[in-house]
Amino acid sequence: MSTTSPSPSPKLAIEVRDLHKSFGDQQALRGVNLVVPEGTTCVLLGVSGSGKTVLMKHIMGLLQPDRGSVQVEGEDIAGMNESALSEMRRKQGILFQANALFDSLTVFDNVAFPLRERTRTPEKEIAELVNKTLERVGLSHATQRFPGELSGGMQKRVGFARATILQPKILLYDDPTAGLDPLTTAAVNEIITTGKQQLGATSVVITPDVASAFGMADHLALMHEGRVVEYGPPDTFRESQHPEVKAFLRNWLQRRAQSRRAAQA
Ligand SMILES: Nc1ncnc2c1ncn2[C@@H]1O[C@H](COP(=O)(O)OP(=O)(O)OP(=O)(O)O)[C@@H](O)[C@H]1O
Predict the structure, then answer these.
(1) Cβ partners under 8 Å of residue 247, min gap 6
(2) Matching PROSITE patterns, A to Z (predicted)?
(3) Among residues 105, 107, 155, 147, which one has the least CA distance to residue 131?
(4) Closest Cα to residue 172, out of 128, 206, 210?
């Protein structure tokens, strides 16, 4: 008889079961199931209006389910009062399209902001932490600059530094590369991978950039009409026979070929 015990299943950072959400007669989510194991990156794909942002807002505790459940680090968001919800959000690093940096604060003060606002960390320690974090994103030379003096990619890196200064266990990105040029997009994708490697954080990323998604994801989830219709590691996802996945990938390849032709013309 074998004495080998089965390897324990990975701990789940996020567990969404049968999540439904409507706005009036608009059914945004129609039974979403999704699990994100701790320390992994899950990328949500799907056409506009498929429900990605509404799902993300549940994970942030900004929306409450009509039906079903959303557990974040083992706790159901439905059971949380306002202070528990804001405590949970404090543990999440959130990077949306707009960097939402404070224009009148230097890079250093932008990154120090969450520490000063939410903790009683002494200024000396704040300086050490902020400098270390800015070094990690390659911005040690820009600490005294203002956001308006930085490139788009540098602003994203400041946003990332600020979102991660409290060492969040969960990082949420909604279209972080929107409107950025290819070089800056590559830099942001690298930042997302760095977040996983350096912080061991669990990440959920919404991006229309399918090539980047394949590069960074441990799992890809395709949303279609308010449900996750396919979920799996990149290799499995790419080979999926699900008609919606096939249509989604075909469409992406066509768009990519078109834009390459346009660029060559
Ligand atoms: N506050 C709201 N009130 C009414 N309808 C909403 C609200 N938020 C989202 N919806 C609707 O829910 C559906 C899903 O929206 P969601 O923003 O999640 O889509 P998405 O997949 O993130 O799209 P996109 O890629 O364009 O951001 C859409 O039909 C949207 O119009």
Answers:
(1) none
(2) ABC_TRANSPORTER_1 (PS00211), ABC_TRANSPORTER_2 (PS50893)
(3) 107
(4) 206
Ligand 1 centre to CA of 32 (Å) is 14
Strand intervals (E) in the chain: 12-23, 26-37, 41-45, 67-72, 75-76, 92-95, 170-174, 202-206, 219-224, 227-232
Strand duo 170-174 + 92-95: pairing: parallel
Q: What is the DSSP string of 157-177?
A: HHHHHHHHTT--SEEEEESTT
Strand, helix or coil for residue 215: helix
| Cα 21 to middle of ligand 1, angstroms | 11
Report residue 156 as tokens. Answer: 């994203």
Place of tokens 């960097």: 99
- Closest listed residue to residue 43, CA positions, set 239, 203, 228: 203
Question: 12-23 and 67-72 as β-strands: parallel, antiparallel, unpaired?
Answer: antiparallel
Q: Which numbered atom of ligand 1 lies nearest the CA of 54?
A: 18
Which CATH class, in words, describes the domain spanning 11-91+204-248?
alpha beta
Rounded mean pLDDT, 2-19: 78
Residue nearest to atom 16 of ligand 1 (CA): 51
Pocket lined around ligand 1, Cβ cut-off 6 Å: 23, 26, 28, 46, 48-54
Rounded to the nearest whole angstrom, what is the distance from the C-alpha of residue 53 to the centroid of ligand 1? 7
pLDDT in tens, 42-75: 999 999 999 999 999 999 999 999 999 999 999 9
Q: What is the pTM of this model?
A: 0.87
